[in-house]
UniProtKB/TrEMBL annotation:
One of its GO terms (cellular component) is plasma membrane. One of its GO terms (molecular function) is electron transfer activity. InterPro entries: BlueCu_1_BS, Phytocyanin-like, Phytocyanin_dom. The keyword Glycoprotein applies. It holds the Pfam family Cu_bind_like. It comes from Populus tomentosa (Chinese white poplar). Keywords: Copper, Electron transport, Glycoprotein, Metal-binding, Signal, Transport. PROSITE patterns: COPPER_BLUE (PS00196), PHYTOCYANIN (PS51485). Residues 23-125 form the Phytocyanin domain. Residues 1-22 form the signal peptide. This is Phytocyanin domain-containing protein. CDD domains: Stellacyanin (cd13920). The lineage of its organism: Eukaryota, Viridiplantae, Streptophyta, Embryophyta, Tracheophyta.
């Protein structure tokens, strides 16, 4: 009985550790980062999501057809990027969220931002999840490998306790 409790406790711990990983959000879901069919597409995509420091955004786009710039609120509102310092031109582009507060992104290709290819998000501290929602699955298998390793160790400990 004691070995079963150890197994269950370690299994629960592995699930908790798995749930605290940073999330990798694919901007626009299966649509990706493109000139949208509606100017509200990306604001609707953000709806119901909670972003946290450590999470990342992956902008999937064709190189040479789109780009992604990190901009200020004013630049976002005016669809302009005054600096090329925060411009990623090769897709897919991954941006790790390192700062809390409002973050703004847009495509600098002519007419794309005004057509709605821009994104505004709010980043919270720590890795949190919106009520009633789950973060997307992590982008790599490292978390899954860690879960299996922890489960293997818990089984081994359970077996040692029995003998």
């Amino acid at each position: 009985m004691r070995s079963l409790l150890v197994f269950v406790a370690l299994g629960a711990a592995s699930l908790l550790l798995r749930g605290s990983e940073a999330a990798d959000y694919q901007v626009g879901g299966t649509t990706g980062w493109t000139r949208p069919s509606s100017t509200s597409f990306y604001s609707e995509w953000v709806s119901g999501k909670t972003f946290a420091v450590g999470d990342s955004l992956t902008f999937t786009f064709t190189t040479g057809v789109h780009d992604v710039a990190t901009v200020s609120k004013s630049e976002y509102d005016n669809c302009s990027a005054s600096s090329q310092d925060n411009l990623l031109t090769a897709g897919p582009a991954k941006i790790t969220l390192n700062v809390t507060g409002d973050n703004y992104f847009l495509c600098t290709f002519p007419g794309h931002c005004s057509a709605g290819q821009k994104l505004a998000i709010t980043v919270a501290e720590g890795n949190t999840t919106s009520p009633g929602t789950s973060p997307p699955p992590p982008s790599s298998a490292s978390g899954l490998a860690a879960t299996f390793a922890l489960m293997f160790v818990s089984i081994a400990i359970s077996l040692m306790c029995c003998f």
